[in-house]
Amino acid sequence: MNPAKESTTTSGPSALGKRAQIWHAFNALDEQKKGEVLKSQLKVLTHNLLTGLGLPETDDKIEAFLPLATALSFKDFMRFVEPILAKAVARFCNADDVPILLDRLDNVCWFICSRTYVSQPGRTLDGDNCFKIWCVFNVLAQSGDDGEDPVVPVEIDREEAEILVQKVHRFIGIGYDKDGFRRHLGSEDRLLGFPQLLKLVEKYLFGVDASVVNKVVAEIHEQYVLGVLKKGYLTKKGHFVTNWKERWCVLTPNFLRYFVSRDEKELKGEFRITSKCTVENVNDRSGSKQSKFILKGEGKDYEVSVPDPITKTEWVTAFNTAISYHTQLGKESPMKTEIRQRRLSRLARMERLTQEQQQKLKQKELIDSTQQQLDQEMTKRMDAERRMQEEEEKRLRDQELMARTKEELEAVSMARAEAEARWANETAQLERQKEHLREMQELHGQLSAQLEKEQKAREQEELSRKRQEEIIREEVQKKRELEEMRTALESLLMDEKQKRENLEEAKLQQEALLKQETIRLQKLEREREEREREYQVAWEKLQLAEREKEEALRLLKKKKETPFGSALSRFVESEATDEVPVTPVSHRGEDFLLSEGAIITQTKSGSGKN
Question: Who contacts 131 (Cβ-Cβ below 8 Å, separation ≥6)?
Answer without folding.
Answer: 110, 114
